[in-house]
Amino acid sequence: MARGGAAGLAGFGLGLALFVFTVPLLLRSCRFSEPQAEGARRRPVGFSAQEKEQLREALRGAIRIPTVSFSPGKVATSAMEEFSAYIRKVFPGVFSSSFVQHEVIGGYSHLFTVQGSDPHLQPYVLLAHLDVVPASDEGWEVPPFSAQERDGFLYGRGTLDDKNAAIGILQALEFLLKRQYRPVRSFYIGIGHDEEVSGNDGARKIAAKLERAGVRLSFVSDEGLAVLEGVVKGISEPVALVGTTEKGAITLTLTVHSEPGHSSFPPKETSIGILAAAVSRLEQNPMPSLFGKGPELVTFEQLATQFAFPLNVVMGNLWLFAPVVGRVLEREPSTSALVRTTTALTLFHAGVKANVIPPFANATVNFRIHPAQTVEEVLELVRATVADERVKLNVQDAFDPLPVSPYDEDSFGFQIIRRTIHEVFSEVSMVAPGVCIGNTDSRHFVNLTDSIYRFSPIWLKREDLGRIHGLNERISLEMYERGVQFYFHLMENSDIAQLPKPHKSAHEL
Ligand SMILES: *[C@@H]1O[C@H](CO)[C@@H](O)[C@H](O)[C@H]1NC(C)=O
Ligand SMILES: *[C@@H]1O[C@H](CO)[C@@H](O)[C@H](O)[C@H]1NC(C)=O
Ligand SMILES: [Zn+2]
User: Which of 66, 120, 303, 504 has the maximum number of C-beta atoms within 10 A of its C-beta?
Assistant: First the structure.
């Protein structure tokens, strides 16, 4: 996950509890009931004690390799070479199988092609990334690349984002191959090396290669949302959110040039003053709230029955209460990010000397675009707010929000992922679609499929959200084992040619 992460639903601080509830319109609150996970399935496979030891050691070794991405084009190349050698050593079955082909892409990324027995079934892709954001020892309970174990947790940079997936996927395939597994449906495993700094050299090249080969994908699975416990305030049961879209982004530089001069006879306005006023206007005038116009509405509608009274009624009647809920969500930064395009002032450069009028000043603003807006619409609002011709706008990088992937009963990828979540995380009461407020490598695959799903098989409590890209990132070893099970079953579950016919749930009216 590149910035943002699962935090989107955190801090759903319920001023709504204070909301006096007088409208007797309760009937629609039961509309969305979760169909029971289809019964009569294999029980999750048990790994042997020896396998459990192996899978822990494999992750531990990977965490110790400091595969850091610093900035686009600047990554820890020797650590990444070490990682390449490491996976060859730890997953001998994967690298020696006659139907698994391996290629290195962009120098340090990996593409595995796993040939299924039925060439008529559309293949899918499992994505992960091997790079991590930097971490220094400061503030950590144990050094971030030491992979120490404490109270059942493995600590280290990359344990949640995203070596748990990069290693977990290969581990699942290794265990399946050991059990003489041969997939029916072909699939790819793509492990990028620069996700944290754009994915342009890794995932983008993997996607381009598949596109050139004429591949169409049934679905893409990547990191993203997760099993959340106590994260959505008002819901105590763990729920799983699968990201069906992610926000867009704009990196915009504002520049002001003015006549240089001596500070003893200053002009009325300097470049610093003009620029500061412009960026301040952007900060003081946030983009409009769009709650109800984007897919975040569906998340709340589908989760409605999981909320305690009276929130279940509120969420079940969003056709009526959306404006109120939207105002509550707007209040806190983490939920504000769900309902609007965010504006973050991130860089400011100006000045050369204490007694010189600066010839120019520039500032960079980072916007994360709500799924109901486009790059052009945001730039239009920015121009109207800045409203000063002396301020030149220069777009450094921009992309629209990702299209919303389907999540209905016929959506193969969504349903396979949902079923696998219920199988492996049986405590989860509901699986619902959600919006990723950060970006992932999967966005490079938009031309290959309309079905991109962002779900990390990890279990997050509220206090864990800050560990991703933060201090003391850690994963419970028991949960990591379930992560491997998740990929193990995802591969097996994807082997069916089509979804079983949906049967109407008894609760449905
Ligand atoms: C902004 O100004 C700084 C300092 O002069 C300069 O290094 C940087 O390249 C400028 N950024 C842009 C995007 O023009
Ligand atoms: C998808 O295809 C369009 C049109 O050919 C192209 O402009 C765009 O860059 C492609 N996107 C990606 C992520 O490859
Ligand atoms: Zn990540």
Answer: 303
Last residue of a domain, one of 399, 420, 436: 399
Q: Say yes or no: 412 and 357 in one domain.
A: no
Q: How many domains, the chain?
A: 2
407 with 358, same domain: the answer is no
In this structure, of 10-24, 353-367, 429-443, 470-484, the range with the lowest mean pLDDT score is 10-24
Q: Which ligand has the shortest distance to the CA of 1?
A: 3
User: What pLDDT shows up at residue 257?
Assistant: 95
Distance of CA 166 to the CA centre of its chain: 15
Specify the residue with its C-alpha closest to ligand 2, atom 2: 447
Q: What is the pLDDT of residues 363-375, one digit of tens each?
A: 999 999 999 999 9
Q: Assess whether the C-beta atom of 253 lies below 6 angstroms from ligand 1.
A: yes
pTM to 2 decimal places:
0.88
All residues at 6 or more sequence positions from 378 whose CB lies less than 8 Å from its CB, including other chains = 250, 287, 341, 367, 369
Tokens 């799924």 -> residue: 371
Same-domain check for residues 338 and 420: no
- The overall average pLDDT reported for the chain is 89
* Domain termination residue (choose one: 399, 416, 440): 399
Q: Is the CB of 444 under 6 A from ligand 2?
A: yes
Q: How far apart are CA 2 and CA 162, in angstroms?
A: 10
Its domain, for residue 422, covers: 49-245+403-504
